[in-house]
TrEMBL record:
<dbReference type="GO" id="GO:0009428">
    <property type="term" value="C:bacterial-type flagellum basal body, distal rod, P ring"/>
</dbReference>
<comment type="function">
    <text>Assembles around the rod to form the L-ring and probably protects the motor/basal body from shearing forces during rotation.</text>
</comment>
<dbReference type="Pfam" id="PF02119">
    <property type="entry name" value="FlgI"/>
</dbReference>
<dbReference type="GO" id="GO:0005198">
    <property type="term" value="F:structural molecule activity"/>
</dbReference>
<dbReference type="InterPro" id="IPR001782">
    <property type="entry name" value="Flag_FlgI"/>
</dbReference>
<keyword id="KW-0969">Cilium</keyword>
<keyword id="KW-0732">Signal</keyword>
<dbReference type="GO" id="GO:0030288">
    <property type="term" value="C:outer membrane-bounded periplasmic space"/>
</dbReference>
<comment type="subunit">
    <text>The basal body constitutes a major portion of the flagellar organelle and consists of four rings (L,P,S, and M) mounted on a central rod.</text>
</comment>
<dbReference type="GO" id="GO:0071973">
    <property type="term" value="P:bacterial-type flagellum-dependent cell motility"/>
</dbReference>
<comment type="similarity">
    <text>Belongs to the FlgI family.</text>
</comment>
<keyword id="KW-0975">Bacterial flagellum</keyword>
<keyword id="KW-0282">Flagellum</keyword>
<keyword id="KW-0966">Cell projection</keyword>
<feature type="signal peptide">
    <location>
        <begin position="1"/>
        <end position="22"/>
    </location>
</feature>
<protein>
    <recommendedName>
        <fullName>Flagellar P-ring protein</fullName>
    </recommendedName>
</protein>
Length: 368
C-alpha cells in the first residue's frame, strides 16, 4: 500500500511539472540601455526601366539630381528641362544596433516617396543616414531587392505585393559609433516585455536563488534591478548567466483582444464564462419607391397628368432566438459556446461587449 501511494505521488509531481510552463529570462525581459536606434535618410535610386518619377509632378527629384551632379563637378545649364524616367526619390531607413561598431554593415529599407511605378532593378546611390540628433551615423548604397512583381500592357495591369519598396541586405556601413553607458553603473536593469507584478517578483526570486549573482529587486511591475559590484567585463558574464535562468510563468490575465478594423477576435486560455442567455438576430429595413402616373378621367375634362411617388417600407427581423450559454472554464469550451451562437465576427464583438457589461465574461476586453 505504501509503494502504491509513493508511485501515485510521483505521478502527481510529474503531471504538475509537465503542466508548469517555464521561460528563460532572456525571453521575458530586455536589458536597460541595450536597444536599437532609428536612422533615416533621403536618396536617389537610378537604373530603373522607365518606371521612375515623373519629374513634372515631382520637382524635388530633379532638384536632388542637380545638387548631386554639381557635387560631382557637372553643371546642368539653367532652364534645362530634364525628363528623367529612370530616377526616383526615396526615403531610406535603418536600425543602428546596440553596440554597433564602425565598419559594421546593417540592412536598409528603401521606399519611394514620389510617383515612381516600380523600384525593381534600381540602385541606391550613396545616402547619408542620420539619427535624431541630425548626425550622420551610416552610409547606404547598393542594389535594391524587390519582393513584388508587376506587369502592364494595353491598358491592363497586374501586380503582386508591393513594388515601390525594397530592401538592401547589408546596404549601410556604420561610420559613427553611438556612445553607450553600459557597465558604468553597478545596477543592471531588466525591463519586462509585459507589465506583470507576479512575473517581476518571480524573476527577482529566481536570480536571488542562484548564488553569486548579486541582489535582485523588483522595483515595479515592469522593472527588475540587479545590484552588482562587477566591472564591465564581469557584467557581461553576469547577464549571460542571468538570462539563461528559467522562470515559471504565472497565470496570465484573461484577455480578449478585438481588432475593430479587421473584425478579428483573439482570446487567451484564461478566458472563462458564466451562464447567461443571449438573443442574437438581424434587423433589415427595405424601402421601395415606385412612380405612378395619374391621368384625368376624360380627355377634355381640363385635368392634368401628374406623377405620384408611392413608397413601401418592409421591416424584417430574422433569428433573435434566446440562447443559453453555459458556464465554461477552458478556452475550447468558450470557443464552442460562442460558435453555437452562429454569429459573425462583427456580431461577436457586440456580443462580447454586452457579456462583459452583464458580468458573464470574465476577461479584460481590449479594443485595438
Amino acid at each position: 500500500m505504501r509503494n502504491v501511494l509513493i508511485r501515485f505521488a510521483l505521478l502527481l509531481v510529474v503531471g504538475f511539472s509537465a503542466l508548469a510552463q517555464a521561460d528563460r529570462i532572456r525571453d521575458l525581459t530586455t536589458v536597460g540601455g541595450v536597444r536599437d536606434n532609428s536612422l533615416i535618410g533621403y536618396g536617389l535610386v537610378v537604373g530603373l526601366d522607365g518606371t521612375g518619377d515623373q519629374t513634372t509632378q515631382t520637382p524635388f527629384t530633379t532638384q536632388s539630381l542637380n545638387n548631386m551632379l554639381s557635387q560631382l563637378g557637372i553643371t546642368v545649364p539653367t532652364g534645362t528641362n530634364m525628363q528623367l524616367k529612370n530616377v526616383a526619390a526615396v526615403m531610406v531607413t535603418a536600425k543602428l544596433p546596440a553596440f554597433g561598431r564602425q565598419g559594421q554593415v546593417v540592412d536598409v529599407v528603401v521606399s519611394s516617396m514620389g510617383n515612381a511605378k516600380s523600384l525593381r532593378g534600381g540602385t541606391l546611390l550613396m545616402t547619408p543616414l542620420k539619427g535624431v540628433d541630425n548626425q550622420v551615423y551610416a552610409l547606404a548604397q547598393g542594389n535594391i531587392l524587390i519582393g513584388g512583381a508587376s506587369a502592364s500592357s494595353g491598358g491592363s495591369s497586374v501586380q503582386v505585393n508591393q513594388v515601390n519598396g525594397g530592401r538592401i541586405t547589408g546596404g549601410a556601413t556604420i561610420e559613427r559609433e553611438l556612445p553607450n553607458n553600459f557597465g558604468t553603473s553597478n545596477i543592471v536593469s531588466l525591463f519586462l516585455n509585459q507589465e506583470d507584478f507576479s512575473m517581476a517578483q518571480r524573476i527577482a526570486d529566481a536570480i536571488n536563488s542562484r548564488g553569486g549573482y548579486g541582489m535582485a529587486q523588483a522595483v515595479d511591475g515592469r522593472t527588475v534591478q540587479v545590484r552588482s559590484t562587477a566591472n564591465n567585463t564581469s557584467q557581461v558574464r553576469l547577464l549571460a548567466d542571468i538570462q539563461n535562468i528559467d522562470v515559471s510563468v504565472p497565470i496570465q490575465d484573461a484577455k480578449v483582444i478585438i481588432n475593430s478594423r479587421t473584425g478579428s477576435v483573439v482570446m487567451n486560455r484564461e478566458v472563462n464564462l458564466t451562464q447567461c442567455a443571449i438573443a442574437q438576430g438581424n434587423l433589415s429595413v427595405t424601402v421601395n419607391q415606385t412612380q405612378n402616373v395619374s391621368q384625368p378621367n376624360t380627355p377634355f375634362g381640363g385635368g392634368q397628368t401628374v406623377v405620384t411617388p408611392q413608397t413601401q417600407i418592409d421591416l424584417r427581423q430574422s433569428g433573435g432566438a434566446l440562447q443559453t450559454v453555459n458556464a465554461t472554464a477552458n478556452l475550447n469550451s468558450v470557443v464552442r459556446a460562442l460558435n453555437a451562437l452562429g454569429a459573425t465576427p462583427i456580431d461577436l464583438m457586440s456580443i462580447l461587449q454586452s457579456m462583459e457589461s452583464a458580468g458573464c465574461l470574465h476577461a479584460k476586453l481590449e479594443i485595438i
